[in-house]
Write a structure and sequence with these properties.
Strands 1-2-4-3-7-8-9-10 form an eight-stranded mixed β-sheet, with helices on both faces. A two-stranded antiparallel ribbon has the order 5-6. 40% of the residues lie in helices and 16% in strands. The protein is globular. The protein contains twelve helices and ten strands. The longest helix is centred in the middle third of the chain and has 22 residues, at 188-209.
Length: 326
């Protein structure tokens, strides 16, 4: 399999690679059929399905932090799957599903919780639901960024699973504590600023709607948070049962689960990913089981991998090739 990435010469540096697709691509590349599942705890999990030939392979996809099924990288990967005659299911994390009529608006969930990098039960529920409906079909999975962390953690937690035949993770933040510290510097603060703007609103809204959430979230600290560590310590960790941001990072980082994975899995990252220090990639590779194939490019940014070749968005072709052949 060809893993030779030739970055677009007109996008020098990791930041242009990271943001280009978000500026240049459509958020409506594929049509969806929406389904809302009732979760075991009485909440809603929104799935967006890409239709295709009966019995064809199905790709389950997990988006990144504050993304959705309409994120351009999700749309691109599912469009590539459609070109191959596959079907797809994009799993929207709780509080992340977009209103189809107004994509800038997210749909609230019904329970006093949100989502986080280590929450794998919703993905497991979605996988089991789709597999039970069609156990004879081939099911594969991919995740980007936070979604990659969730996918890898779930695979490590379930080494004997037979529902997902192969998997791929793109630009995974394997060590959440290291990634959080890395983003406190230089240009990283700009990414954090944009993501925290919506995360803060969700935390405040959860505290307003649910007494249980209000009792756990330190709303004023969450409002003042300027780093992921500050926000996670005030909101994410206490809302989801962790004693601190440090405990949340330690228990949720996928690097601790890579060694248990038995499913053929591709981990695709760039050394210049602005969301993670490069040294973490070496540690993650060393921790992984033989079932995990690491591909690390020199350039590519964070879920970027914009190429100068015919396949403009290189990672999408590589991931689909891997899932088809593994």
């Amino acid at each position: 399999m060809d893993f030779d990435f030739r970055p677009a010469w007109w996008l020098p540096g990791p930041h242009l690679q990271t943001v280009w697709g978000r500026l240049a691509r459509s958020t409506r590349q594929v049509p969806f059929r929406r389904e809302v599942l009732e979760t075991p705890d009485g909440d809603e999990l929104v799935l967006d399905h890409l239709e295709g030939p009966p019995g064809s392979p199905r790709l389950l996809f997990l988006h990144g932090l504050e993304g959705s099924s309409h994120s351009v990288y999700a749309q691109g990967l599912l469009a590539e799957a459609a070109r191959r005659g596959w079907r797809g299911t994009a799993v929207n994390f709780r509080s992340c599903a977009r209103d189809p009529k107004r994509l800038s608006r997210t749909l609230p969930n019904r329970r006093p919780r949100l989502y986080h990098s280590g929450e794998t039960s919703d993905f497991g529920f979605a996988v089991e639901t789709m597999w039970r409906r069609e156990p004879s079909a081939r099911h594969v999975a991919a995740g980007a960024s936070l979604g990659g962390n969730v996918l890898l953690k779930w695979l490590g937690e379930n080494p004997g699973q037979r529902m997902i035949a192969s998997a791929a993770a793109i630009s995974t933040p394997y060590d959440l504590a290291a990634g959080s510290k890395h983003l406190e510097r230089r240009m990283g603060r700009l990414y954090v600023r944009g993501l925290l703007a919506t995360l803060r609103k969700k935390a405040v809204e959860a505290a307003r709607r649910f007494p249980e959430a209000a009792a756990r979230i330190d709303v004023e600290r969450a409002r003042r948070a300027r780093t992921f560590q500050e926000f996670d310590d005030a909101a994410t960790a206490p809302l989801h049962g962790f004693a601190s941001a440090e405990e949340y990072y330690a228990k949720s980082s996928s690097i601790g689960y890579l060694g248990a994975i038995r499913t053929p899995t591709l981990c695709l990252s760039a050394q210049d990913d602005p969301f993670l220090p490069a040294e973490v990639l070496a540690r993650a590779k060393a921790a992984a089981s033989p079932s995990v194939r690491f591909v690390t490019t020199v350039r590519g940014g964070h879920v970027g991998f914009v190429s100068s070749g015919r396949q403009r968005y290189w990672a999408e072709k590589v991931v689909l090739n891997w899932l088809a052949s593994s």
